[in-house]
């Protein structure tokens, strides 16, 4: 338990629950017969399918092309036959999906670029390769990385922040990537030197509950005096982009602004690693690391997963359930999305599968606010969640806006900490929707 | 892919976050009651078993009046949040052992019905119910309260005790413009432990209150800066007022309701400030006012008045000190108007 003398700490301390997987090396997940590739695994326009039912596809072949500037290609991670293109359940809803029947031959498509020359690539080449590889933010945000790496004209980048905080309870995928692939992360960072010629400092922020990851990256970056591995206090949501920029670079992004306006770019460890692998080996984004954990899981694991693998196959790999699960989440318990069907596929932004038992998933009955001010103390962007929530409940949308509802990053700390179990974040989300609706009129 | 457990239709969905902290409102109130146990034990030790009767009457009346009020007004019954019990306990402990039963009952009913429920119930009351009740009792019933008695031990005196010795509280010697400690006042150690001093039963042993305070701080129930800044501010003003008479300042912070009020009353959630900086101003304000009343008044009660005044100012303080939101240049400029009723 950490203790902050003056009460305001801008974060909370949910139980970490990482110990069951944090020491386990990454192992390959089994690959099932049927793979599902949603055309919308990213923020932005859905990709457009370019294959038809009956087509034979190879590993690393494009199934759907980007549907706009803010979009990303979708690749097949197996070889086989396209057997359907239809709506399927995905984490957080439904999406058009390309269904591929695995032939287990793993015939490979040509690499997206000639391998072995990432060092000689120009800025434009790197960005186009990252775009071609279909890379998106792999920490969960799934924003197309090529767009992020091309800041608007006039904005120079002097600080690169690598997000290795992994503050979500249970999740250990980034942790294992940092321990096992520190060199590839550093190589990815070195590519960014070509992208941002004015780059002066590179911070790697890692929560201090991962000393082995800190050590691995310190060792891997020993030759570079502009790379700083910074241990961060273990506290949720230490890995939020805005807070990393504040804590590591000492800058604050203006409301609704981009990190680039304060000369920063933030990238997740797995994302920067994928950028390196795309440029160096010509690999599109068809694999990622997923930690599968939670009380009902028999043998939690860190798995190397082919994107498109349905969740139930991974749960099977982990020995199945020891008890009836209450909630199954794509992601961690603070920001993850619940699924009602285990047939949904792993996508580019799925960091973890977290399974809660019915007791852990219990929210508790809502009671009157006792004005303990804990929601104010834990808000990472210094909002007053209870006041926004009450303003919304009274129908006072303008007031909710004045109190900064639109600045909410939806980390969930307020709802988590509330002793009266008030659904603060739900109310703030509703307030945001109402504000947007009002402004569109 | 045969799964041993069929999950179809069993999985819950719902918006994030999917876990909640274990802390509940009732747990928080229970912690305050636990923290009131050391002063209760000390009071029983000094003033006799009658203390336990007083506490029992306070809790019973407070809970019963909340229950009856909610029943009679067709509101949901909310006594299970344990907040009424805390109020009842505070009222009993802030009266002298000579206080008649009807006075405890009056205080508890006044606190719960008028101060708390009439103002919208838990979390909505702008004044601390226990503080308001004790101030009203002080104003209305001073003749029944003036007979401060010296402690008579575990089996001695008490309400029924005929040999209760009337005495003055130390405050009457060091307040009202005094700048030095007269000889009648007990020594610092006695004041700290509560030996041989009269007063409200829960307030005489600062040692017991300190244990309660530390418990609440380490349970993260109260914000430590409130009691610390409150007591320290009074200490500082008294230091200046007495021209650095160390004995005088120490005697001041160890007498009267200061410790008890700073620990259990100024830290009240509903009636205190909500914002982090507002809490700082609130605590310092309480300290300044207490010092002011101690210097100017010729009777005890400064802590109660101070907390009530700061309670009244808290919404204004909060509206001026709303935290600056990340990325914004200025604090939010909006009126601090809390909902006045629980829905």
UniProtKB/TrEMBL annotation, chain A:
<dbReference type="GO" id="GO:0005886">
    <property type="term" value="C:plasma membrane"/>
</dbReference>
<feature type="region of interest" description="Disordered">
    <location>
        <begin position="1"/>
        <end position="24"/>
    </location>
</feature>
<dbReference type="InterPro" id="IPR010208">
    <property type="entry name" value="Ion_transpt_RnfC/RsxC"/>
</dbReference>
<keyword id="KW-0249">Electron transport</keyword>
<comment type="subunit">
    <text>The complex is composed of six subunits: RnfA, RnfB, RnfC, RnfD, RnfE and RnfG.</text>
</comment>
<dbReference type="Pfam" id="PF10531">
    <property type="entry name" value="SLBB"/>
</dbReference>
<feature type="binding site">
    <location>
        <position position="414"/>
    </location>
    <ligand>
        <name>[4Fe-4S] cluster 2</name>
    </ligand>
</feature>
<dbReference type="GO" id="GO:0009055">
    <property type="term" value="F:electron transfer activity"/>
</dbReference>
<feature type="binding site">
    <location>
        <position position="411"/>
    </location>
    <ligand>
        <name>[4Fe-4S] cluster 2</name>
    </ligand>
</feature>
<keyword id="KW-1003">Cell membrane</keyword>
<dbReference type="InterPro" id="IPR026902">
    <property type="entry name" value="RnfC_N"/>
</dbReference>
<feature type="domain" description="4Fe-4S ferredoxin-type">
    <location>
        <begin position="399"/>
        <end position="428"/>
    </location>
</feature>
<feature type="binding site">
    <location>
        <position position="372"/>
    </location>
    <ligand>
        <name>[4Fe-4S] cluster 1</name>
    </ligand>
</feature>
<dbReference type="InterPro" id="IPR037225">
    <property type="entry name" value="Nuo51_FMN-bd_sf"/>
</dbReference>
<dbReference type="InterPro" id="IPR017900">
    <property type="entry name" value="4Fe4S_Fe_S_CS"/>
</dbReference>
<dbReference type="InterPro" id="IPR017896">
    <property type="entry name" value="4Fe4S_Fe-S-bd"/>
</dbReference>
<feature type="binding site">
    <location>
        <position position="418"/>
    </location>
    <ligand>
        <name>[4Fe-4S] cluster 1</name>
    </ligand>
</feature>
<dbReference type="GO" id="GO:0022900">
    <property type="term" value="P:electron transport chain"/>
</dbReference>
<feature type="binding site">
    <location>
        <position position="408"/>
    </location>
    <ligand>
        <name>[4Fe-4S] cluster 2</name>
    </ligand>
</feature>
<protein>
    <recommendedName>
        <fullName>Ion-translocating oxidoreductase complex subunit C</fullName>
        <ecNumber>7.-.-.-</ecNumber>
    </recommendedName>
</protein>
<dbReference type="GO" id="GO:0046872">
    <property type="term" value="F:metal ion binding"/>
</dbReference>
<keyword id="KW-0813">Transport</keyword>
From TrEMBL, chain B:
<keyword id="KW-1003">Cell membrane</keyword>
<keyword id="KW-0813">Transport</keyword>
<dbReference type="GO" id="GO:0055085">
    <property type="term" value="P:transmembrane transport"/>
</dbReference>
<keyword id="KW-0472">Membrane</keyword>
<dbReference type="GO" id="GO:0005886">
    <property type="term" value="C:plasma membrane"/>
</dbReference>
<protein>
    <recommendedName>
        <fullName>Ion-translocating oxidoreductase complex subunit D</fullName>
        <ecNumber>7.-.-.-</ecNumber>
    </recommendedName>
</protein>
<keyword id="KW-1133">Transmembrane helix</keyword>
<keyword id="KW-1278">Translocase</keyword>
<dbReference type="InterPro" id="IPR004338">
    <property type="entry name" value="NqrB/RnfD"/>
</dbReference>
<feature type="transmembrane region" description="Helical">
    <location>
        <begin position="126"/>
        <end position="150"/>
    </location>
</feature>
<feature type="transmembrane region" description="Helical">
    <location>
        <begin position="226"/>
        <end position="244"/>
    </location>
</feature>
<keyword id="KW-0812">Transmembrane</keyword>
<feature type="transmembrane region" description="Helical">
    <location>
        <begin position="47"/>
        <end position="69"/>
    </location>
</feature>
<feature type="modified residue" description="FMN phosphoryl threonine">
    <location>
        <position position="169"/>
    </location>
</feature>
<keyword id="KW-0597">Phosphoprotein</keyword>
<comment type="function">
    <text>Part of a membrane-bound complex that couples electron transfer with translocation of ions across the membrane.</text>
</comment>
<keyword id="KW-0288">FMN</keyword>
<dbReference type="Pfam" id="PF03116">
    <property type="entry name" value="NQR2_RnfD_RnfE"/>
</dbReference>
<comment type="subunit">
    <text>The complex is composed of six subunits: RnfA, RnfB, RnfC, RnfD, RnfE and RnfG.</text>
</comment>
<feature type="transmembrane region" description="Helical">
    <location>
        <begin position="90"/>
        <end position="114"/>
    </location>
</feature>
<comment type="similarity">
    <text>Belongs to the NqrB/RnfD family.</text>
</comment>
<keyword id="KW-0285">Flavoprotein</keyword>
């Amino acid at each position: 338990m950490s203790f902050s003398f003056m009460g305001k700490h801008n974060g909370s301390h949910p139980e970490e629950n990482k110990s069951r997987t944090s020491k386990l090396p990454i192992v390959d997940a089994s690959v099932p017969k049927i793979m599902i590739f949603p055309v919308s695994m990213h923020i932005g326009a859905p990709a457009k399918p370019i294959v038809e039912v009956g087509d034979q596809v190879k590993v690393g072949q494009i199934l759907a092309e980007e549907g706009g500037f803010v979009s990303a290609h979708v690749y097949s991670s197996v070889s086989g036959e396209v057997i359907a293109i239809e709506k399927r359940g995905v984490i957080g809803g439904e999406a058009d999906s390309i269904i591929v029947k695995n032939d287990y031959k793993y015939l490979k498509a040509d690499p997206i670029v000639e391998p072995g020359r990432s060092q000689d690539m120009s800025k434009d080449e790197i960005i186009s390769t990252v775009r071609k590889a279909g890379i998106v933010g792999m920490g969960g945000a799934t924003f197309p990385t090529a767009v992020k790496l091309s800041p608007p004209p006039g904005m120079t980048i002097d600080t690169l922040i690598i997000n290795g905080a992994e503050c979500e309870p249970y999740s250990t995928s980034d942790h294992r990537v940092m321990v096992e692939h520190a060199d590839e992360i550093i190589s990815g960072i070195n590519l960014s030197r070509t992208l941002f010629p004015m780059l002066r400092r590179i911070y790697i922020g890692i929560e201090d509950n991962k000393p082995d990851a800190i050590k691995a990256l310190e060792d891997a970056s020993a030759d570079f005096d502009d790379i700083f591995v910074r241990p961060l206090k273990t506290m949720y949501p230490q890995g939020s982009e805005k807070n990393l920029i504040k804590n590591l670079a000492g800058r604050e992004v203006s409301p609704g602004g981009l990190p680039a306006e304060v000369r920063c770019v933030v990238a997740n460890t797995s994302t920067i690693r994928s950028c390196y692998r795309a440029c160096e080996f010509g690999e599109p984004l068809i694999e990622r690391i997923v930690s599968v954990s939670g009380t009902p899981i028999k043998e939690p694991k860190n798995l190397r997963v082919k994107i498109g693998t349905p969740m139930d196959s991974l749960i099977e790999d982990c020995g199945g359930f020891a008890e009836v699960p209450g909630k199954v989440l794509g992601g961690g318990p603070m920001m993850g999305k619940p699924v009602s069907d285990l047939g949904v596929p792993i996508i580019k932004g799925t960091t973890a599968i977290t399974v809660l038992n019915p007791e852990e998933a219990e929210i508790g009955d809502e009671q009157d606010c006792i004005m303990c001010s804990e929601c104010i103390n834990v808000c990472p962007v210094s909002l007053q969640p209870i006041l926004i929530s009450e303003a919304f409940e009274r129908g006072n949308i303008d007031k909710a806006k004045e109190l900064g509802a639109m600045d909410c990053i939806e980390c969930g700390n307020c709802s988590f900490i509330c002793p009266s179990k008030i659904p603060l974040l739900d109310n703030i989300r509703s307030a945001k929707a109402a504000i947007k609706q009002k402004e569109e009129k | 892919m045969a799964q041993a457990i069929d999950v179809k239709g069993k999985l819950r969905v719902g918006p994030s976050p999917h876990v909640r902290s274990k802390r509940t409102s009732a747990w928080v109130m229970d912690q305050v009651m636990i923290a009131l146990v050391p002063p209760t034990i000390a009071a029983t030790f000094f003033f006799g078993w009658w203390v336990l009767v007083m506490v029992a009457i306070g809790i019973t009346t407070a809970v019963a009046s909340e229950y009856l009020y909610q029943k009679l007004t067709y509101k949901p019954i909310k006594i299970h949040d344990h907040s009424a019990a805390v109020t009842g306990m505070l009222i009993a402990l802030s009266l002298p052992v000579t206080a008649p039963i009807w006075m405890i009952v009056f205080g508890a009913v006044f606190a719960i019905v008028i101060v708390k429920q009439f103002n919208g119930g838990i979390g909505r009351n702008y004044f601390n119910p226990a503080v308001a009740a004790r101030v009203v009792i002080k104003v209305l019933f001073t003749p029944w309260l003036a007979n401060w008695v010296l402690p008579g031990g575990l089996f001695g005196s008490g309400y029924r005790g005929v040999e209760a010795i009337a005495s003055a509280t130390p405050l009457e010697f060091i307040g009202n413009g005094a700048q030095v400690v007269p000889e009648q006042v007990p020594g610092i150690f006695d004041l700290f432990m509560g030996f041989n001093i009269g007063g409200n039963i829960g307030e005489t042993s600062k040692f017991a209150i300190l244990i309660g305070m530390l418990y609440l701080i380490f349970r993260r129930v109260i914000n430590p800066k409130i009691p610390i800044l409150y007591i320290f501010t009074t200490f500082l003003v008294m230091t200046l007022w007495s021209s650095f008479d160390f004995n005088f300042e120490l005697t001041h912070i160890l007498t009267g309701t200061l410790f008890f009020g700073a620990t259990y009353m100024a830290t009240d959630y509903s009636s205190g400030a909500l914002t982090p900086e507002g809490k700082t101003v609130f605590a310092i304000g309480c300290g300044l006012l207490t010092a002011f009343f101690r210097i100017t008044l010729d009777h005890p009660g400064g802590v109660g008045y101070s907390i009530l005044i700061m309670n009244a100012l808290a919404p204004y303080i909060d509206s001026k000190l709303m935290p600056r939101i990340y990325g914004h240049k200025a604090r939010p400029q909006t009126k601090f108007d809390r909902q006045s009723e629980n829905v």
